Amino acid sequence: MENRQRLSRAVFLDRDGVLNRSLVIDGKPYAPRRIEDFRLFPGTTAAVARLKAAGLVVIVVTNQPDIGNGLVDAATVAAMNARLRQRVPVDDILVCPHRQTDGCDCRKPKPGMLIEAAARHRIDRSRSFLVGDRASDIVAGQGAGCYTLYVRRGYAEASPQRPDACVRSLGQAVNVILDRLAKGS
Question: Is 92 a known active-site residue?
Answer without folding.
Answer: no
